[in-house]
Write a sequence for this structure.
């Protein structure tokens, strides 16, 4: 650093100048040594000065004492008071809290929004911040119960029994309660108000059976599902349930910092939540409302209270409308349904929560006849030109008792072919095509001597090809499977009654006209008619058309799914279609002849029981006839007598649909 030449003698000796630099500290040490030598009067050859032993021992003792203090303090903080400080840390920083994502909304096919999210506020308890003293804790809970206007003991038990440190106490707080908790937040450090959203179902009763509803997630679901918090809602019914993974979005992660008094002093977002996808349906909201209103009017006119309807686009399988009467307001679930309200719904004898189009099982009556015709044509049992004599009743000789056993029709028809049989719904034609006939001593002379019909196994085969007796796979929960009976089914079903196990010719006759043990959903019936309308393709019906983001950009489209096709020859289906067209021209559905477009239809009535005068009243229609774009199936329950009920609904609805929607 610095260099200085040294010439003077040091202690009587000559010192040679260094060949290199001499450091400044060397000069300083030399001067100190010279001073010490002069003071002591002696000579020294060492530059170092040793530290006195006493000073070293004192320093060592001081260091050991300081180290002991530090170790003792560390022991106290980490071991003795560790749990206390962990609790304080948890109370002051609530880290890793899930941020509930905003749920995706639902649109009809024209992007009319059917579901909205509206702001809501929930009361949350953080049990780690409740008073340790039981009496003080009980007082806090009593204060909260007073604000919520609930039973304090019930609230206390609910909070203390909960399995989680942080839990939702109350949903959807009103403005007055929010203000009350804000005023008392310093006295209630274990409780805080958290923002949330709830569903707002526009015109809820019109769409409730389709859209469904959400409900608060429960403890078991929290354990089973990832990234849900107790403040979350989850789809409970309808499309809200089917498309939970899409509508839900992705939860975010946040941290909330509080001071010792429970005041929020900071917050941060560790991971942003992702908005749920928007669901666009095939549904036509206008058609849905028109069909519902028309059904309600007709039900009132005929004295009925229950019914179902479904409309399908036969070109894709998309569901255009689905009506279940009576319905319910799904907004009561968003608001937080009370136990009393839920009990009232569940005990309602009309069962408004039951989705009749998808879950309801009914005997179909004569709506089965086009499918029996298709099967007979395909199997060569009949042709377009086959003519069968149709008296007012077909009588058999009971093989066991020898007694006369007759199957009646509503009138005499005479000689008929398949088209007329469909158009006028002629039972004897379908008895014979379905079950066959052997002349006996009770026979009308014009009946065939020996006609081999389809028989129950082949009827079952073709009904299943059209999708009966099995779920369609529609994208909504609760679909029923239905039932196409045969000898094996009857044997198993009546296992406790051997005399009822035998499949008889009468069972096949009943099956051929949609009576007896046959059960189908309106959805299955409509979807089967859609296959007739489109020339032989059975689609999987679906509500969802596509998923969009919050700017309505398409994220995903759902392609139509074909269940099967080509199982009936096109020329045979065309014969059936012509028979249904004749039903509108001059037959059982002539009421539809004045529609703005040509339509084809098949009506049906199924008696509820032999002892009653009540019927299930059906109609299935497709239109326009040449290029069908809609199939509607309607069933009205408990219609007294053989009056028209479903048919006027179809007439009014399709008149509106094709007549400018006015």
């Amino acid at each position: 650093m610095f260099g200085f030449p040294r010439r003077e003698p040091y202690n009587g000796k000559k010192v040679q100048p260094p060949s290199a630099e001499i450091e400044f500290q060397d000069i300083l040490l030399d001067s100190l040594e010279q001073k010490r030598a002069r003071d002591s009067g002696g000579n020294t050859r060492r530059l170092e000065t040793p530290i006195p032993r006493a000073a070293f021992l004192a320093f060592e003792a001081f260091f050991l004492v300081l180290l002991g203090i530090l170790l003792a303090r560390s022991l106290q903080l980490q071991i003795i008071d560790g749990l206390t400080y962990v609790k304080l840390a948890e109370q002051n920083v609530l880290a890793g809290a899930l941020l509930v994502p905003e749920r995706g909304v639902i649109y009809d096919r024209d992007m009319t929004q059917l579901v909205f999210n509206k702001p809501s506020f929930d009361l949350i308890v953080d049990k780690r911040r409740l008073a340790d003293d039981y009496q003080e804790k009980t007082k806090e809970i009593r204060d909260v119960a007073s604000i919520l206007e609930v039973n304090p003991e019930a609230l206390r038990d609910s909070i203390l029994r909960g399995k989680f440190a942080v839990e939702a106490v109350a949903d959807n707080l009103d403005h007055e309660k929010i203000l009350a908790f804000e005023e008392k937040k310093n006295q209630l450090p274990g409780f805080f108000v958290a923002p949330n959203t709830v569903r707002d179902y526009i015109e809820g009763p019109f769409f409730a059976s389709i859209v469904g509803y959400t409900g608060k997630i429960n403890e078991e679901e929290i354990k089973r599902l990832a990234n849900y918090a107790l403040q979350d809602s989850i789809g409970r019914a309808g499309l809200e349930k089917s498309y939970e993974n899409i509508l839900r979005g992705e939860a975010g992660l946040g941290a909330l910092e509080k001071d010792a008094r429970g005041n929020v002093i900071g917050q941060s977002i560790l991971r942003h939540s992702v908005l749920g996808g928007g669901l666009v349906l095939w549904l036509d909201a206008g058609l849905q409302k028109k069909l519902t209103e028309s059904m309600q009017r007709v039900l009132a006119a005929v004295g009925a209270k229950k019914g179902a309807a479904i409309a399908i686009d036969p070109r894709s399988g998309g569901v255009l409308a689905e009506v279940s009467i009576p319905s319910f307001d799904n907004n009561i679930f968003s608001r937080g349904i009370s136990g009393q309200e839920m009990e009232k719904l569940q005990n309602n004898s009309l069962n408004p929560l039951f989705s009749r189009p998808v879950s309801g099982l009914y005997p179909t009556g004569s709506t089965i006849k086009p499918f029996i015709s298709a099967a007979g044509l395909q199997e060569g049992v009949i042709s377009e030109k086959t003519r069968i004599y149709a008296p007012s009743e077909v009588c058999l000789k009971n093989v066991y008792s020898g007694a006369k056993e007759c199957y009646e029709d509503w009138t005499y028809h005479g000689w008929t072919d398949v088209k007329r049989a469909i158009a006028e719904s002629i039972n004897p034609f379908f008895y014979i095509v379905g079950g066959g006939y052997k002349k006996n001593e009770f026979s009308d002379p014009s009946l065939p001597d020996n006609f081999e019909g389809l028989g129950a196994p082949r009827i079952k085969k073709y009904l299943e090809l059209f999708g009966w007796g099995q779920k369609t796979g529609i994208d909504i929960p609760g679909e029923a499977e239905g039932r196409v009976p045969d000898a094996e089914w009857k044997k198993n079903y009546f296992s406790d009654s051997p005399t009822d196990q035998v499949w008889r010719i009468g069972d096949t006759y009943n099956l051929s006209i949609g009576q007896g043990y046959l059960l189908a959903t309106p959805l299955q019936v409509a979807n089967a008619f859609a296959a007739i309308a489109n020339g032989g393709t059975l689609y999987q019906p679906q509500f969802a058309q596509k998923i969009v983001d919050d700017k309505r950009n398409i994220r995903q489209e759902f392609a139509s799914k074909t269940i099967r096709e080509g199982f009936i020859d096109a020329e045979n289906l065309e014969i059936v279609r012509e028979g249904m067209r004749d039903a509108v021209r001059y037959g059982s559905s002539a009421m539809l002849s004045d529609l703005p477009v040509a339509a084809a239809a098949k009506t049906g009535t199924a008696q509820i029981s032999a002892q009653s005068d009540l019927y299930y009243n059906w109609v299935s229609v497709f239109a326009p006839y040449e290029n069908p774009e809609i199939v509607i199936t309607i069933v009205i329950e408990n219609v007294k007598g053989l009056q028209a009920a479903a048919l006027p609904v179809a007439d009014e609805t399709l008149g509106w649909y094709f007549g400018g929607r006015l």
